[in-house]
## 1
Amino acid sequence: MLNVLLIGNGQCGNRILDAVNRLSMNRGSSVKEASGGLSKYFSKHKYKSNVETVAINTAINDLKEMKFTKAKDRIHIPNLHGVGANRKYGKEVFEQQKGMIMRLLEERPRPDVAFVITSASGGTGSSFTPPLIEEIKKVHDYPVYAIVILPFREEGTLYLQNAAFMLKELREGPCDGVILVDNQYLKSIGGNYQDAYDGINTMIAKRLLFLLDSLDSEMMMVTDLGDFKTVMSGGAGLATIGYAKAETETPIRNLIQNSVSPSGLLFSTDVYQEASRAMIIIKGDKKYLSIDEISAEVEKLTSAVGHVFKGIIIQNGELPEVLCVLTLSSAEALEGLYEGAVAAINTERTKKDKIRREKEFDSSFLSIDGLEPEYWSRFLSVRSCDIRFRDIRPRNRRHRNGYMVSAGRSSGWTFFSDLLKNVSWSFRT
Ligand SMILES: Nc1nc2c(ncn2[C@@H]2O[C@H](COP(=O)(O)OP(=O)(O)O)[C@@H](O)[C@H]2O)c(=O)[nH]1
Ligand SMILES: [Mg+2]
């Protein structure tokens, strides 16, 4: 029996983890979903793997939002309400809190495999995940995979930049492989954000449970954790998952094709061009599992991809389902995201330059306006006083980007820039 650790980092990671727990507890949103046999993960009698779930967040509200994850499985980083999509700050927080987080993880049974689920683009999950995997790998040699959710492209430049830097860190670090899920690609699932999130989260949860199930099954043709590790070590450290389920009696040939087609994948890729290794697991009643059809399709995939591990699980009376794990040697869609991030970085740089130039203008304005020779003599003459921005009274005149301030009867006027409002100024009047 496998020991599996599932960590959900940040809001997106927490929600997907909660969806996994929901399906596992046989409380899927639809009866059909719930009766998919996934209850074995949590029902006492039908456990297949020992699955531990842990949700980590800096925002207590995100943790409270979870409905199917036990309180003891939620780690709140104290005194914070999120990190505001600020990865630099998030990394500092992780550094301070990593002792506590690692201690709580170490209290659980040693896993055979771990998955860390997170969005690439937010703050907490994006900044915690790479160093968390690094911490785990410092002391353990079990494989740790990241399931990374890419942003909707319209969510803005900050998210794009976060995603690019997060992926870079993950790929340069000791993470054993990144499974990509693209919100943008899966957008059509829901008419609004909430529906899209719920739909995507359920898709991921379902596939993850299918995968875990198949790694721990006594199958007719077995795929195990060793095979999964071999698949994931191929390619450029990137992977995605395809899936298809028959709603009616569908030839297994079509179902395999659907699982690797755009409608089956979690990330946009041309499998026949970009995949480098694959694992395909077919589940269902044996009457649907034609050996000729399966062999022909797997052969087709093998000739394009290289190596394909194949597993078959017989489930009496069930319509067939296919899961496909594909590692990628290249990912054109990711290059598109990187290009977006580079454009965002350049735009930001231009804006920063503009702000810097304006600041320079302000300070030169300040030196002209505040330090006119006429006033210098007064400053030097009487006494020293400390003026802070809050001392500025309404009687002082609002001026472009600041105030003209009079510190006292004999002081004359000087200019206080808005940009310097947090600076305590000391000058003579
Ligand atoms: N698929 C999916 N994406 C989500 C969900 N919640 C947030 N996101 C995406 O995650 C990104 C924001 O990250 P989030 O996880 O909220 O940040 P964090 O809490 O600071 O780690 C955005 O790109 C969102 O579109 C969710 O429930 N499902
Ligand atoms: Mg959020």
Note: The pocket of magnesium ion (ligand 2) is lined by residues 11, 122 (CB under 6 Å).
## 2
Amino acid sequence: MVSHDWSESTTSDCANVDILIVGAGPAGLMAACCAAQYTRSIRIIDLKESRTRTGHGDGFQSRTLEILDSFGLAQDILKQSTPDVEGSYWTSKKGCGHIQRVGIEEAGNGHNSRFPKALLNQGATEQILLDYLCGKHQIFVERSTLAQTLHIRDVADAAFPVSVGILHVTDNDNQRSKGRATVNARYLVACDGAHSWTREQLNVPTEGDPSGSTWGVFDIVPISDFPDIRRSCAIHSEGVGSIMTIPRENRMVRFYTHLHDGVEKTKVDDSSGVPHELVDRAARTMKPYTLTCKHCDWWSLYRVGRRLTTKYRPHDRVFLVGDAAHSHSPLGGQGMNVSMQDSYNLVWKLGAVLSGLFDNAIFDTYEEERRPVAERLMRLDAKLVEAYENGSTRSDKGVAETREDYSGFMSGIELIYSPNKLVSHGGSSSSASARHVKLGKRIDSVPVTTHCDGTRTQLARYLSMNGSWRLFVFSGDLRQQERMDLLTRFAEAFMKCPSLAKLNQTSFGNSKSSIIESILIHSSPTTAFNLLDLPDMFHPFDEELGWDYWKVFTDDKEHTTDVSHAYETYGIDEAGPCCLILCRPDQHVAWIGDSEDVAGLDEHFSRFVCK
Ligand SMILES: Cc1cc2nc3c(=O)[nH]c(=O)nc-3n(C[C@H](O)[C@H](O)[C@H](O)COP(=O)(O)OP(=O)(O)OC[C@H]3O[C@@H](n4cnc5c(N)ncnc54)[C@H](O)[C@@H]3O)c2cc1C
């Protein structure tokens, strides 16, 4: 196999790097995790001297857990987190002053995801990503390091056109310097938060309204007789106020409280460490139930505002990611999730272009795909804030209905990228169909059986983020000779196509996996034929490791008791044409066709593979 390694440098203090990531919050750390699959020529810097210790984001949507699972990290999150199973809604009748429960609903089962919603503080999440980066890839965040100057050379042949002047600081407040240096990068990934330094350097305006009402937020160990203290709650007490609560790890609960009449920070900060003013306001809203606390982990006051960048790629070599591109209130529990998802969308494209194999025109798809997500997020946020502030009785739609309307979006699972350079329009002359698979949507995982040893497993286990595109081949029952012939014909046509064969035999820098991995899902018993009798593309050979046995699976209904089956789930007719589904490295479906349409598959890649 040919291995593309474009890196000229591999040390973290190198002045010339492929990718410089500014900011080591959730977006920056996720960007580094993705980039590490392609290159070791990465630097990631952050002004802060340590990761987030307390507070900030705490909700994981199902899609974010799927993404973390593609690095093998979801279980680490789930082990520490609190499940978010039920949400309840409370309101008081005017004049009565006492709240009553008006409904309990499931928090959402993740919309066909293997993962539920889960709650864990942002700092713990950052630690899991840091451990992965340092343990698996020896990538370390350079702390107390401020990006201070930005200069981009517009010389077409400059290898490292982005120059960032960095300052090593000893003290974040007065920025006393321990030394300066310059980092030259091929690409700058700006994950520098809501007040993005990069956005400011490049004079990128934002849209939206940054000013809004004030809310208080605090993480406490509550002492309360409120019956739903371990459920997520939206509570509105007419004439008193609105609060939202979220159960957390270590007996903690996160409270958000709307400060409709404003409050001075100095009044809250009474040096006890507990924001009594905020806790008292929440307690008044929760009457007749009581609320006090002895331990507060973190509290803050913030203004609800919405801002969306006008450009996600303000320069050919610079990308705005996460809060740097969009910011809004925390009420939907989306910011950390969407920020990590931005990185997941962008960085595999960067890796593929850096390899010299893919055209940089694919970068347009970053904004094409992620801006609509942020726009929808702004609409959701405006509706949620209004619903919370006005209470479910007065707003057009209450919190419960708004959450219900947006539940698929909030889970991250229902997201569909529109046709673009990387996602086919569909509608080809192909006779195969996967009725329940949508172009542009991430593919559902299904239980399958590994042909080599009969293990029942989730298909997603084999879809790790390593830069590979996955071509799923649904051959049907290979005990039928004509279906085996169909598969053999497909494999021959694929390998005879020079561009596809090259992608099948080429890997990226850090990975042994090929750019196109073929995965066969047949519907015969595992004993029906010998795996090595299948065409070579389904058991690639490595001099050191021998054959790869984990590219062939069966969806053999007769021998399992599972309710969910691949052919049924995807809506593929076993006896019909042999169906092909192509997924991008981020698991979104790019192209669907049949095994006779190798030319169509080739045409899809020809739209972005360098000649
Ligand atoms: C109270 C609160 C509750 C929230 N709750 C949720 C929730 O439940 N779910 C959810 O998904 N999200 C939630 N969020 C939002 C979430 O915290 C953010 O969306 C998330 O942190 C954004 O990640 P990011 O990496 O884009 O930016 P950040 O986390 O802001 O990271 C940016 C980093 O860039 C660094 N930086 C900035 N400028 C420079 C520079 N010039 N040089 C070097 N470094 C620099 C900063 O030090 C910082 O570490 C909440 C936020 C708050 C405040």
Note: Residues 82-118+213-303 form a domain with the D-Amino Acid Oxidase; Chain A, domain 2 fold (CATH 3.30.9.10).
## 3
Amino acid sequence: MSLIYESILTCPTCGYRQKQSIPSEKLEKYFCVGCACVITISKEECCVFCVYGSHTCLVEQGWELMEIKLNKDP
Ligand SMILES: [Zn+2]
Ligand SMILES: [Zn+2]
């Protein structure tokens, strides 16, 4: 399984699209260059990539599962 490390975030306010690399931890906010605003998510949502991104975060892509698999057979 190959993971995607870059996602296009679409701003919910101005619609500006920007490319952002996906970190291994969950990102709860990002800065939109288009309207100079910090875009946040609500508590029930996973991260900015799962809500606004063209690709979901690494955890949603199965990154955690891969970690478990690696630990199981060294
Ligand atoms: Zn914006
Ligand atoms: Zn996510």
Note: The chain has two helices and four strands.
